[in-house]
Amino acid sequence: MYDFEYHKPTTIADAVKILAADPDAKPISGGMTLLPALKHRLNKPSALVDLGGIAELRGVKREGNAIVIGAMAKHYEVATDPLVKEAIPALARMASTVGDTQVRNRGTLGGSLANNDPAADYPAAALALGATFITSRRSIPADDFFVGMFTTALEPDELLVAVSFPIPEKAGYAKLRNPASRYSMAGVFVAKGPAGVKVGVNGAASCAFRQTEMEAALSANWSADALSGVTQSPDDLNSDIHGGAEYRAHLVIVMAKRALADAG
Ligand SMILES: Cc1cc2nc3c(=O)[nH]c(=O)nc-3n(C[C@H](O)[C@H](O)[C@H](O)COP(=O)(O)OP(=O)(O)OC[C@H]3O[C@@H](n4cnc5c(N)ncnc54)[C@H](O)[C@@H]3O)c2cc1C
Predict the structure, then answer these.
(1) Is the whole-model pTM more than 0.85?
(2) Residue ranges of the domains in the chain?
(3) How many CA atoms lie within 13 A of 54 on its CB side?
(4) Ligand 1 site-directed mutation target among 32, 104, 108, 133, most atoms within 8 Å of CB
(5) According to CATH, what is the number of the domain 170-263?
(6) Is the C-beta atom of 99 inside 6 A of ligand 1?
(7) What single-letter DSSP state applies at residue 218?
(8) How far is the CA of 29 from the centre of ligand 1 (A)?
(9) How many angstroms does the Cα of residue 223 sit away from the middle of ligand 1?
(10) CATH annotation of 1-50
């Protein structure tokens, strides 16, 4: 690890001020991804801005027809929060499958979404639920947030503050885990919500995406039968030692059917 400065501000405004003054400073939340990157010298920030002391980034609340979850909510909190469990049980179930017990007790919703790992679970849920990302300077719809592999619309001095998830009528999630890393080989989150049917896919490509052919089919008929004629092109899907693009394309269809069963 390289030397770096360490800051622990107690307000969003102070954290943003530090980040704006130093383009090489980086926020850190759970550290589950960033700390290993530092240890392997894959990242060399001049300063770390620890978000753990900022109360404004915490909490889960209901606002109208949405559940708003603070960026510093740990995966364990998302999995067990009574509001999330009641309003969006599929999101709680999904959070309960992230990593292992240690990761769920350190890693955060905001850190995962800001990191945008292609195999992370939350991006598919955010796309399918039509989430809105509330940052330290604006609101960003999920469709505009995920820009590419490990890249989001966030500016270097912009913090993810909370995510607002509209409460769906029905939602479900299924993924096939890589047996070694336990990350998603392909995961599908389906939701029927105020803005219609949306389907988010993770793990299969370099960035989570919406499967619009499935959305059209499920809008007409919310059942696994509707997916019989739907295809997933292997073009642009990942091919690696764990599985080829054709295999991942097949998994997307299978996981979508399982996600529908999960949604009920
Ligand atoms: C063994 C292991 C298994 C895992 N398995 C899974 C899995 O199955 N599914 C899954 O989805 N994930 C998995 N993860 C990743 C885990 O979910 C991490 O918690 C997550 O990727 C990063 O969250 P964090 O809070 O630790 O962020 P950090 O590591 O602290 O930060 C990650 C990145 O986000 C930035 N950042 C953090 N918070 C903010 C914010 N509020 N605003 C702006 N930028 C911010 C940081 O600067 C950094 O670039 C796993 C991780 C490990 C170590």
Answers:
(1) yes
(2) 1-50, 170-263
(3) 26
(4) 32
(5) 3.30.390.50
(6) yes
(7) H
(8) 8
(9) 33
(10) 3.30.43.10
The letter for the amino acid at 61 is K
The closest-lying atom of ligand 1 relative to the alpha carbon of residue 37 is 29
**Cα separations (Å) of 125 from 200, 209, 246?**
6, 10, 23
Question: If you search the block for the tokens 């490509």, which residue do you land on?
Answer: 205
In eight-state DSSP terms, residue 243 is: B
**pLDDT string in tens for the chain (264-residue length):** 678 999 999 999 999 999 999 999 999 999 999 999 999 988 889 999 999 999 999 999 999 999 999 999 999 999 999 999 999 999 999 999 999 999 999 999 999 999 999 999 999 999 999 999 999 999 999 999 999 999 999 999 999 999 999 999 999 999 999 988 889 999 999 999 988 999 999 999 999 999 999 999 999 999 999 999 899 999 999 999 999 999 999 999 999 999 999 998
Q: Does 202 contact ligand 1 (Cβ within 6 A)?
A: no
